[in-house]
Protein: Secretory carrier-associated membrane protein
Amino acid sequence: MARHDPNPFADEEINPFANHTSVPPASNSYLKPLPPEPYDRGATVDIPLDSGNDLRAKEMELQAKENELKRKEQELKRREDAIARTGVVIEEKNWPEFFPLIHHDIPNEIPIHLQKIQYVAFTTLLGLVGCLLWNIVAVTVAWIKGEGPTIWLLSIIYFLAGVPGAYVLWYRPLYRATRTDSALKFGAFFFFYVVRKPNFYW
Structure:
């Protein structure tokens, strides 16, 4: 009858550090043993230590820098508080993301009932930029095919004046009007928007 083993998966007790004679040592090894490195217990490393005067001078210099930074921080805090009391909004430039030129944050600054109007205006501004770029491309092709360079220069001037002009004269006033819901700012927007209209029919 077979003997009952309580754990058939248990490993046999083998000492891995025992000198087994079944594996012969390698006789054709190409690696040579490294020579022993000399060890000198009396060797010292010279680390230059600052003298007391140098430490005191550095401490004074750091203290002066710290005082200067505290003074600048207090001045900046005072200016920020003064600006906040006057009601001036500091707009951080955040659009386009790869090269921020303008501040643009419709979801967080424009009331929900006016966001659709602002998105339509923003799409209109981007459409104007696209049309003026396409105008430059089309006029460049026409110039290559034999037209004069005058129309190309006019298209460049129209792009360089039209895009910033559209942003400053009608998009930014509309953005500020919808942000504050101010009738005066809406009036400024409508004035510049109506003045701009004949420009398209020219």
